[in-house]
Design a protein that fits this description.
Length: about 550
């Protein structure tokens, strides 16, 4: 049964409720319920696309836990990626709970929150690497893993009902370059201790073999840059400090200077310096400084690997950047994988670069990227170490979750629960499963305001995009007589050469509709608007088969 208002019965025992991050990649928000108390793990965003016109950022609606805020004991962050902590700057005022994070994540969060008016109110509790923290009834241990950001953590939740491992994002990398390798020893110890449930990353559950190493990327990228002429731009995730360090090292090895182009890169640079994760051969140049370096002596790290329209690379590709230009003979290296859903946006940026006659290198052409998520061999090792009673695949589309479930079954996990957002999952040996569910919604950042994604604003934009807009202005006297021909504006409905004919037809239909009203109705503004609206709708539908947004403006003159 789906509860529209989150009005579920009180829960005893240990439960997991994903509000984001299941059956999708991004927007992670997981709630763990323990005998009436709740702990949030991660609070992330995803980015808008063509299906959300005018919307840049999406996030889960936290209403369920906001209604239970008195029972919320805290928010724990696994790592500093936008899809895991990017919603805090928008949603924390609704939650007002303490936040627990390791030093790098805490440093980057403080820098992000500095742009808000509530930064000083947020209680951020730093937990040391491999630290352990009591949070309400939860005993939480942080276990170091490897990912494409400093200080990723798996979380161990020790409860009276059993031990849960929440993997966060992770991989097995023998040469991560920045930070430590995944703590295999501790994970094996947890397996010996006995793991009730593993809630685990499914991003690469369809990929055979292993995910590859950052060390190999550094060697290949250094070699590739050595054979290039002209300016070189490398785009990657701004939080991938190992990759940023790699580009700096590769540039230096080839006698080039290195610059950071993009605001979020400088923010990560500051957090990495504060926590000791960058050891540069020489300081990065600013974008203004980079503009004056000869083309064959510069490498630029740019934001925009996912085609974000406001990113540095997108603006450069549109020839719309204040300082940086790219031209024939220059090269752009995409040192990041495409997140599902971003293909069109990335394609647009690459098309604009191609128009500039810039050479483009992607991971399909060269070894310039490795994933930060575990492929199937790594997942299998993880299961062999932890040997959980229950597997809950998360962080993936339904296809990824199903593949992960099959792998867990092959690893002889006794119980497997494939979740969806809103599913309330009992974590109990022999009785694991979905016991209830709530309706989940999405919030959207519309300019500076948070709105529900299912409200009329977004629906109206879809209709405007797909069906067009017709605006008619009518000027009448007090008795309802038209004093002038209706004025018509058509947006998204025009065809070259026939716009005037369409407008004349609409004017005639509107005049007929108003004339056919009774004298009393013509004095009623709403009756006139409705008659004109129906006339416009029927005329356009018959002529074009469209159902545009229609706006009737009415002016009365004495």
């Amino acid at each position: 049964m789906t509860h529209m208002d989150g009005g579920i019965a009180p829960l005893d025992g240990l439960h997991l409720l994903p509000l984001g991050g299941s059956e999708e990649i991004g927007m992670n928000l997981y709630l763990y319920g323990l005998d009436g108390k709740w702990l949030i793990v991660d609070l992330g965003i995803t980015f808008g696309d063509e299906s959300t016109p005018g919307i840049d950022v999406l996030m889960p609606d936290p209403s369920f836990i906001v209604e239970r805020r008195k029972d919320l004991v805290g928010l724990v962050l696994t790592h500093a990626h936008e899809d895991h902590f990017g919603a805090i700057q928008y949603l924390w005022p609704r939650l007002k709970c303490p936040i627990y994070a390791t030093p790098f994540t805490a440093a980057l969060l403080r820098l992000k929150l500095a742009e808000t008016d509530f930064a000083k109110k947020v209680k951020i509790i730093e937990v040391p690497l491999s630290g352990r923290q009591s949070i309400g009834p939860f005993d939480v241990e942080f276990v170091t893993v490897t990912h494409s950001v400093p200080e990723p953590n798996a979380l161990v939740l020790r409860t009276p009902h059993g031990l849960v491992v929440h993997s966060g994002d992770w991989k097995l990398d023998p040469e991560p370059l920045v930070g430590e390798q995944t703590d295999e020893r501790t994970l094996r110890r947890l397996g010996d201790e006995g793991v009730l449930a593993l809630v685990c990353d499914s991003t690469n559950a369809l990929e055979p073999g292993r995910s590859g190493s950052e060390g190999e990327v550094r060697r290949k990228l250094t070699e590739a840059i050595g054979g290039m002429r002209g300016r070189i731009a490398v785009t990657c995730f701004s939080t991938n400090v190992a990759r940023i360090q790699t580009v700096a090292e590769a540039a230096h090895a080839n006698g080039r200077q290195c610059a950071l182009i993009g605001r979020s890169l400088w923010r990560v640079h500051e957090a990495a310096k504060q926590t000791g994760y960058l050891d540069l051969p020489e300081p990065f140049l600013t974008e203004a400084e980079a503009a004056h370096v000869p083309p064959d002596q510069i490498v630029m790290v740019c934001t925009g690997s996912q085609g974000e329209p406001r990113s540095a690379l997108a603006r450069i590709a549109r020839d719309d950047h204040n300082h940086i230009v790219l031209e024939k003979g220059d090269t752009v290296i995409f040192s990041a994988r495409e997140i599902p859903g971003n293909e069109k946006a990335i394609g647009r940026v690459q098309s604009n670069l191609a128009r500039l006659e810039v050479e483009i290198i992607t991971p399909d052409e060269a070894m310039v990227h490795v994933s930060g998520h575990p492929a199937r061999e790594e997942l299998t090792e993880f299961y062999q170490w932890l040997r959980p009673r229950i597997s809950v695949p998360v962080h993936g589309t339904p296809k990824h979750l199903q593949a992960h479930a099959r792998l867990a079954d092959a690893c002889q996990v006794p119980e497997i629960v494939i979740p969806h957002d809103g599913a309330i999952i009992r974590l109990e040996a022999g009785k694991a499963g979905i016991v209830d569910e709530i309706e989940v919604r999405r919030l959207a950042l519309d300019g500076s305001k948070l709105i529900r994604l299912d409200n009329g604003v977004v629906k109206s934009r879809h209709r405007m995009n797909n069906e067009g807009v017709a605006v008619a202005t009518l000027v009448l006297d007090r008795s309802g007589e038209l004093l002038a021909d209706p004025q018509i504006s058509l947006i998204g409905l025009e065809d070259d050469g026939d716009e005037e004919d369409k407008k004349i037809a609409l004017m005639d239909r509107i005049e007929d509709a108003v004339d056919n009203l009774s004298k009393a109705a013509r004095k009623d503004d709403e009756a006139v608007r409705e008659a004109a609206r129906l006339a416009v709708r029927r005329t356009i539908r018959m002529a074009q088969g469209k159902k545009p947004m229609i706006d009737i403006q009415l002016v009365r003159i004495d």
